[in-house]
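Example record for the data management plan.
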Amino acid sequence: MYLVALVVLLAGLGCGSWGAHNLDQEQATRLTEYLDVFVSQVGSVQIDRPMLVKNTITNNIFFISIIYVLGLTVIGTPGILALLFARGFSLGFTLSFLTQGKTGQGILLALASVVPQSILLIPAVFMAGVAALSFSWLLIRRFLDSSLPVWPGIVSYHSLMLVVCCIAAAAGLVEAYITPELIKATISLLN
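Corresponding structural encoding:
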């Protein structure tokens, strides 16, 4: 399960990077303009921290919850894999676009804006995906062999998902409190 989840996540990263490199000129120009506007205005933006904390934690836990629910079903396996791929794709696209469009500045901006919360969130998503795939596989095996105990798997699955939700919430706090300050510091350093 670890290997399957890792391959799907890495495939998403690779496809996201490929997608960023293969944008047509008009799309790349528009995205670069949006990025330039953001960079020019970041110092004057006032952040509503409580709202940002609420939104980031809610989004992270919602994503983990979808994986959790899909893991409770036998037919949820393709959905789990699709979510892992989508998370990898978005991360790969973002990192690749930032680094190709602005080279050195883009690398610093990517390190400041994407990496801090991803250090926590990507392992949490990976653990959730592996746990959901494993539990789904347990349910398939249980369907084929009714003597196989499910209760220990249920307890460990729920416990692990609770830990993963805590990590995802911590990633939301990092995204709300640390990442904006790192972005501001990086942009002031680059200007």
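Summary line stored alongside the record: Residues 2-190 form one domain.
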